[in-house]
Amino acid sequence: MSLHFVTGNKNKLREAEKIIGISLVSSDFNLIEIQDRDVKKIAEHKVREAWGMAHEPVFVWDQAVYMDCLNGFPGPLIKWFWEQVTLEKMCQIANYFDNHAITTETALAYFDGKEIKTFTARREGTMPQAPRGDKGWGWDAIFIPAGSAKTYAEMDEDEMLQHRTHRVTLEKLRDYLKAITL
């Protein structure tokens, strides 16, 4: 079975292949991303569109970061937000409000042409006073998962994967695929 993962991010591809345990076909389709506060709806919309391009089993994942000091904003708009505002300014906002609570959520949607299966996971954490670390990608330098003193960007890959929400969703996908192929 060929399984498409829609991403242009080589880090995401490497982590997904490590967790699922198979070689994936990486497709960097230019998908329309609907604007919605519900990361699950965004992922489901994207996977339907991706199926129309791949015509084979396909999955996508989308992430959201909810800052308590901004009443849950930016949510699914995280990539756009940190690219425009910068990670440094995001930390300054949390410092200004003296509220560093943050939650991350991943929604992974899989579509085989018949049924969409969506897997989600959330993790609570805090933001540091300023970005820390030089590993990882995206907003990894501003997320300290609950139970850790390090940001994702300060962790090695194995430690980071233990805390990542997309690890949980990828494991759920892996288990689902095993169950339907038995």
UniProtKB/TrEMBL annotation:
Q: Which Pfam families match?
A: Ham1p_like (PF01725)
* InterPro entries found in the cross-reference section: ITPase-like_fam, RdgB/HAM1
Annotated family: Belongs to the HAM1 NTPase family.
- Taxonomic source organism: Candidatus Uhrbacteria bacterium RIFCSPHIGHO2_12_FULL_54_23
- A Gene Ontology cellular-component term: cytoplasm
Q: Does the keyword Metal-binding apply?
A: no
The record's SUPFAM superfamilies line, in alphabetical order, gives: ITPase-like
Q: Which Gene Ontology BP terms does the record give?
A: nucleoside triphosphate catabolic process
For this chain, one GO molecular function annotation is: nucleoside triphosphate diphosphatase activity
Which named protein is this? Answer: Non-canonical purine NTP pyrophosphatase, RdgB/HAM1 family
Top-level division of the source organism's lineage: Bacteria
Q: Does the keyword rRNA processing apply?
A: no
Q: Which UniProt keywords apply?
A: Hydrolase
